[in-house]
Amino acid sequence: MAFSDHDIYRIFLNSRPQIQRFLQQRIRCQDTAADLIQDLFLRLTLLKPPPASEIEVRAWLFTVASNLSLDHLRTQKRRGELLGQYLGDESDIDDSAAPERAVQARDQLQQIQIALAELPDQCAEILYLSRIEGLSHAEIAKQLKISTSWVEKQLAKALLQCRQAVGSEGA
């Protein structure tokens, strides 16, 4: 006998404290764990076909919680790498050129923000998923239900537009 939506929500509510502890141990942040619990709740509608036992529901809940925590940790790692790559170490900063570099960096940032705002929504989303979330082209294609070739073309378009924006600033 398959469980109804009401039964699945009841099992989720009963399992929530254990899932919360599980996520807190993995993420080491109570607020982030709470956010991931909310994401998990929103994904309950994706549980198809309905499981036949409470054990199956709980297994699905913990599997999805585990995947959400891994995705979060990968994203945090990728953001840290990007910050390290673009901001560098404090020892890399040349204080004598700081005012000019700050103005130049601010101008470049403004140009890139304008270029990003001009991108079509899907193109901007592909750029975000690739560069910020760290997803592969195949993962992006699967998530957005488009071809890998289209992902590559849109990503190339987005990067070209950003390069042109920064390059045209000095012209």
From TrEMBL:
Keyword Transcription regulation listed: yes
List each copy of the RNA polymerase sigma-70 region domain by range. 16-79
Q: Which Gene3D superfamilies match?
A: 1.10.1740.10, Winged helix-like DNA-binding domain superfamily/Winged helix DNA-binding domain
Q: Which InterPro entries match?
A: RNA_pol_sigma-70-like, RNA_pol_sigma-70_dom, RNA_pol_sigma70_r2, RNA_pol_sigma70_r4_t2, RNA_pol_sigma_r2, RNA_pol_sigma_r3/r4-like, WH-like_DNA-bd_sf
The UniProt keyword set, sorted, is: Sigma factor, Transcription, Transcription regulation
Q: Which domain of life is it from?
A: Bacteria
Q: Which residues form the RNA polymerase sigma factor 70 region 4 type domain?
A: 110-162
A Pfam family? Sigma70_r2
Q: Which NCBIfam families match?
A: sigma70-ECF
What PANTHER family does the database record attribute to this sequence?
A: RNA POLYMERASE ECF-TYPE SIGMA FACTO, RNA POLYMERASE SIGMA FACTOR FECI-RELATED
Q: Which family is it part of?
A: Belongs to the sigma-70 factor family. ECF subfamily.
Protein name from the UniProt record: Sigma-70 family RNA polymerase sigma factor
Q: Which organism is it from?
A: Methylomonas albis
